[in-house]
Amino acid sequence: MPSTQKLDTHHKALTVNLDLSTFGSFAEIGAGQEVARWFLVVGGASGTVAKTISAYDKEVSDDLYGSGSRYVSKQRLEAMLGNEWAQLLTQLEKTRGSHTRFFSFVDTISARNFAGTNDPHGWIGLRFQSQPGGLPNDVLLHINMLDPANALQQEAIGILGVNLIHAAFYELQTKESFLGGVAQDVVKERIEIDYIDLRGPAFESWDQRTLLAHLVSAGFADVVFFPSKGPAVPPTEALYKKTVVLAPGYFGHVDSAHSQVHARLLASGIQQIRNELGEAHSAPAGFFCLTAAGSG
Question: Is the pTM for the entire model greater than 0.85?
Answer without folding.
Answer: yes
